[in-house]
Amino acid sequence: MTQTSNNSREQRPTIIVGGGVSGLTAAKTLEDAGMPVVLLEGSDRLGGRIHTLDLEEDDASWIDMGAGWILDHRTNPVFHMLKDAGTEVRSVPVVGPRVRIYDHGSATWKQWTAAMKAYGKFGWALMRPQPISSEFSSLGERFDERLGNQPKREDAYLLKSFLEILIGSSVDDMHQNMLSEVWEHVEHKGTSMVMITGGYRHLVELLSNALSTTEVMLNQTVSQVSIPQNSSTAPLVAVETSDGRTYQGARVIITVPLGVLKAGSIAFDPPLPPAKQDAIERIGFGTVEKVVMTFENAFWRRNRRKPMSLFSIADPVAADGMYVDVSATSGSGPGAPTSHCLAYVCGNTKAELVAENPEAAVEQVLSDLQTIFPDTFEPPVATATSRWRSSPFSQGSYAYPSVHTEPGDFTKLGEPTHDGMVLFAGDACAEGTALGYVEGAIFSGERAAKDVLAATGRNISRPVD
Ligand SMILES: Cc1cc2nc3c(=O)[nH]c(=O)nc-3n(C[C@H](O)[C@H](O)[C@H](O)COP(=O)(O)OP(=O)(O)OC[C@H]3O[C@@H](n4cnc5c(N)ncnc54)[C@H](O)[C@@H]3O)c2cc1C
Prior knowledge:
The protein has 2 domains: 6-49 and 200-283 and 395-456, FAD/NAD(P)-binding domain (3-Layer(bba) Sandwich); 52-198 and 288-385, Polyamine Oxidase, Chain A, domain 2, CATH 3.90.660. Helices cover 30% and strands 20% of the residues. A hairpin with a 4-residue loop joins β7 and β8. The protein is globular and about 75 Å long. The protein is α/β, with parallel strands linked by helices. The chain has a 7-stranded mixed beta sheet. It has a 5-stranded parallel beta sheet with strand order 10-2-1-14-23, covered by helices on one side. The chain has helices at residues 6-10, 21-32, 77-84, 112-127, 139-147, 153-167, 201-209, 258-262, 274-282, 327-330, 348-356, 358-372, 409-414, 438-455, and strands spanning 14-17, 37-40, 52-54, 62-64, 69-71, 89-91, 99-103, 108-110, 193-196, 215-217, 222-226, 237-241, 246-249, 251-254, 267-269, 284-286, 288-295, 309-313, 322-325, 339-346, 382-385, 398-400, 422-424. The structure holds flavin-adenine dinucleotide.
């Protein structure tokens, strides 16, 4: 390994591993400060867990297979970035009068308003507990205590299964304080939810088009990160890829999903400190998959003008279907001849089915829809499934506090290691309610880049237009 002086080392690039929004944001922040950057992306596209599919390959039916919503949009910087760039958003409700709940147990439609009242009552009661309580072993146990011995099917569904759909894991594996306002990770935001017309790809395009000097390399799967221990003054980080290439840099920012870190797909030499490794193992990483479908007619809408989401309560109650009509943002529009609907598929068994036999997963979703709408159901004209669990570049969907997660674990995950030469970013390294969301990934990328700038004594300067 070549030895370098501090000066020549600082002329070496910062290597960013991963071309999702956190990596792209880190690259832009460093670029703006005049620093050289090499971005290594393992797959053949940028965007990571943002992936908008052109379902019918007609440039008119864009559906998000990964991130889809901007939550609390008025305060969300993602909304403002897109708005400034002229991109439109539309409200796609999953709560309220335009949403329906079908119960397979009684083959009836439930009253949404009454069900949501119960949900609100339970929800508020659950958000009060202090985080140090050790009364319950999991959130599931806490819910069971609230629900009592004979809960209404829709209450059990809304309290437990709905969350399981959103998080992609069992409430029995979620930390009992996950919904507490004082716990690190709070999953109860969502006063407003909008989707982006034409999909989240607009954000990836916005961020990647803004890069000018960053060397972006696709199909570069990083397998090892090494920092020589016996080089006397200023060692370089060596980043090796699975095709045998080595990139040297002053520092490396790792932005791969937590699932990739959990799988140990990147070896660190010297290894990551035990505290970091423990945090990686203790934080949960759930799986949510999507089945997207195009239909000639939106047979599920009572009123054709009103897009509608629906839930289906499985029998026995389990995390099952959540169907969202995305025609308003997919490019087709409610009045157009084709309509797009996506189904959230989650829970280990179902996610495995998507990974192992996507056709069977689609069949299952369609058979459910046929049961719910026996008179109006029509077969789809196109379908597709996501592969977040089986993709080596994600190995799941997003992080959550598991029953094993300890206070401080999310902070540890984001801390630099190896004397500040290895930095970490990505949605799981974000803080508070941004954790696990696109805006959290953006914040974390910016923070890691600013840490690099601080270490080099640079101010963050924006180029004069
Ligand atoms: C189904 C689903 C629904 C979601 N819904 C929402 C939503 O509605 N709203 C919201 O805000 N967020 C949502 N999210 C979360 C959101 O997508 C993420 O928070 C965000 O995209 C994460 O960005 P990131 O840059 O941290 O990670 P990623 O986007 O995962 O980027 C990491 C990059 O690293 C690359 N990589 C992995 N391994 C290697 C390797 N060894 N070498 C090189 N490169 C590698 C990957 O290919 C990827 O491009 C959803 C996610 C999923 C999966």
